[in-house]
Design goal:
about 650 residues; mainly beta; Methylamine Dehydrogenase, Chain H; Immunoglobulin-like; 3 domains; six-stranded mixed sheet; 10 helices; binds (dicuprio-$l^{3}-sulfanyl)-sulfanyl-copper; binds dinuclear copper ion
Length: about 650
């Protein structure tokens, strides 16, 4: 007999039986009335109603914007709802040419310097969980934070221009997962580790796993004024070497607390060459893992009082102290949990069990009560108190096979993604055990999101299923398929699936959806010469007429202006080996008058949005004649927007 685990694993990979729709393309119809178009394209009334719910005429804007993680594409995606039109890819952890991100300009500092790397040059990321900044538990539309699971980093995106302003590499851990989660006033951006390793990046053999490997929850202090994380004011809590997974911050009554679930409380560290099982089954032996409950206000006070050890430049509250002071408590949670979502009123924490059929709702007041009373019915091997499961829960809801993540609407319903069943299940998180409603998704849904879903006041109306597989949903494009986002209308009595959107650049994990009118985006950098990384006019910006080239020894500075349809100066000559810095100022202030600046054969490319200041530094190590030109079709004379870099051979 196959083990239940193997069956589950196989079920995830088997082609879904829910393939219902025809895979042949409807005929296209030209002209005619609605009835004949429907007949010609084979559309049902329901299809047309769904189309009408999402169709957004040219020039009409969307009501909501989704900020979706781009997964191992290393980017973020902005998507309009209900149209499901992709509005922008935002470069975060990898170079991206359209935004001129990582090709010689100021963004190189964000991507490759300023503590963004953690010791080795890295040019990609695995983006998992974006979180929008909050004020009083509601999205405020100012900032967006995302984590890089692969390299334990967190990025800050400014929503004024939708560009990445800061990347911080976690000095303690090698990989993260539960992040980037904000506290209700964005005091902190929380990042928790996934795969345990010695804190600070040291070496230890695998058979010392229990003693030397650790996890950590890092609290990055956010300075809203500066719009940046402040590493010097940030700190962490040492955690046992369980695989910490999803996390969420408490809100309202549970403000001041953070919840993280975990798997691998078995501390399976692979085979270790000693006949031990792979982590896959080694980490699935126990019936329960531990929900981590963290009193972070207490941790903050303990750190401030000097209870920390310094590891790789970060203040870390030691595990013994966290356990003893009840900063950290555990509660058993069903087998291989995934998803840890605090209800909008802050009273409950919903955890799905990947290998269980329930969602469990933990009751915050019951948990806090036990901690306040000092109850400690048992301890884990590191001395952390494990609270009584039955005493800590509101109850459980039968959901289906493989519940993962849960989001909320404005009517007291929860929507849980169910991976193995490929469904979204709607249920009442206050009256547990009642009726549920399921809708099929295509296929194998991972994350799920809802309109303003992580706030204290979700909007309802829309849910999006973020499916891991598309299979037959779209015209085939080879063996590597896009992911499939499906828009679900939850405004009626029953859920209805209204739109499929392929996501063809990385595998998204989480996403959040914000009211579009909360976003106050820039139309231009004003005044001209504004450095987008300081929000100030650069001291090196030039006004029209002041353009020039200056040489000091082997260093050449070019002060160049950019305006339709020329660069001034339009040529400059240097000697092979010179250090060249080009200071570019866009003198444009008109909306959407973007130029680009690239130098052929020099891997230099920046985007010059209206009013932007850019600074390109490179070594002119190759001699020859190199055209530079504008990469955005900006005017009728765009092709003419060019010039020459002349590099004289050394010693000529
Ligand atoms: S994960 S599909 Cu958030 Cu990284 Cu759950
Ligand atoms: Cu400027 Cu094309």
């Amino acid at each position: 007999m196959k083990s239940p685990l193997l069956l589950l694993a196989l079920a995830a990979c088997a082609p879904s039986e829910q393939t219902t729709a025809s895979t042949t393309a409807p005929k296209s119809a030209a002209g005619g009335d609605l009835g004949s178009i429907m007949a010609a394209r084979g559309l049902s009334d329901a299809d047309v109603i769904n189309a009408a719910k999402t169709y957004t005429p040219s020039g009409v804007h969307d009501e909501y914007v989704i900020f979706a993680s781009g997964g191992h594409g290393g980017n973020m995606i902005a998507i309009g709802v209900p149209s499901m039109r992709i509005l922008k890819y935002i470069a975060v952890f990898g170079p991206e040419p359209w935004q001129g991100y990582g090709f010689g300009g100021l963004s190189d500092k964000v991507l490759y310097q300023d503590g963004a790397q953690g010791g080795k040059e890295i040019s990609w990321g695995d983006v998992h969980h974006p979180n929008l900044s909050e004020t009083a538990g509601d999205y405020d539309g100012e900032f967006l934070f995302v984590n890089d699971k692969a390299n334990a980093r967190v990025a800050v995106i400014d929503l004024a221009d939708l560009s990445t302003k800061q990347i911080v590499a976690n000095p303690l851990v090698m990989s993260d997962h539960g992040g980037a989660f904000v506290t209700p006033n964005t005091e902190y951006v929380v990042e928790t580790s996934q795969y345990a390793a010695p804190l600070g990046g040291g070496y230890a053999p695998l058979d010392s796993y229990n003693d030397t490997f650790r996890g950590a929850a890092t609290f990055w202090k956010f300075n809203r004024e500066a719009g940046r994380l402040d590493p010097a004011a940030s700190w962490a809590i040492e955690l046992p070497p369980y695989a910490q997974d999803l996390a969420d911050s408490g809100k309202l009554v549970s403000d001041g607390w953070v919840f993280i679930n975990s798997w691998n409380t078995e501390r399976s560290a692979g085979t270790e060459g000693k006949g031990k099982p792979f982590t896959e089954s080694g980490a699935s032996q126990n019936d329960t893992d531990y929900l981590h409950v963290i009193d972070y206000k207490k941790a903050e006070a303990l750190i401030a009082a000097g209870n920390f050890k310094m590891i790789a430049g970060m203040k870390v509250l030691p595990l013994e102290v966290a356990a003893k002071e009840r900063v950290l408590s555990f509660i058993a949670e069903p087998k291989s949990p995934h998803g840890c979502d605090v209800t909008p009123d802050g009273t409950g924490i919903v955890v799905g069990g990947k290998l269980d059929t329930h969602a469990t709702v933990f009751e915050f007041s019951k948990i806090k009560d036990q901690i306040t009373k000092g109850e400690c019915p048992s301890k884990d091997p590191y001395g952390v108190c494990v609270l009584d499961f039955q005493k800590s829960i509101r109850g459980q809801q039968q959901i289906g096979l493989g519940p993962l993540h849960t989001v909320f609407d404005n009517k007291g319903f929860a929507y849980t993604s169910v991976f193995l069943d490929s469904t979204v299940v709607k249920w009442d998180y206050n009256k547990l055990g009642g009726e549920t409603e399921a809708i099929s998704t295509q296929y194998n849904i991972g994350h799920i999101l809802s309109a303003e879903g992580d706030t204290v006041s979700p909007d309802g109306h829309w849910v999006v299923a973020m499916n891991k597989m598309a299979q037959d949903r779209f015209t085939p494009v080879g063996p590597l398929l896009p992911q499939n986002f499906q828009l679900i209308d939850i405004s009626g009595q029953n859920m209805s699936m209204v739109y499929d959107l392929p996501i063809p650049l990385g595998e998204p994990h989480y996403a959040q959806m914000i009211k579009a009118d909360k976003l106050k985006t820039l139309q231009a950098y004003i005044p001209a010469g504004t450095n987008p990384y300081t929000d100030k006019v650069s001291e090196h910006a030039v006004a029209a007429g002041a353009e020039r080239t200056e040489r000091k020894g082997k260093k050449v500075d070019v002060y160049m202006s950019v305006i339709r349809s020329h660069f001034a100066p339009d040529f400059f000559e240097v000697e092979q080996g010179d250090e060249v810095t080009i200071h570019l100022t866009s003198l444009e202030q008109a909306y959407d008058q973007t130029h680009g600046f690239s130098i052929d054969m020099y891997n230099v490319n920046v985007s010059m949005e209206p009013g932007k200041y850019e600074e390109i530094t490179f070594k002119a190590d190759r001699s020859g004649v190199f055209p530079f030109y504008c990469t955005e079709f900006c005017s009728a004379l765009h092709l003419e927007m060019m010039g020459y870099l002349l590099v004289k051979p050394k010693g000529s």
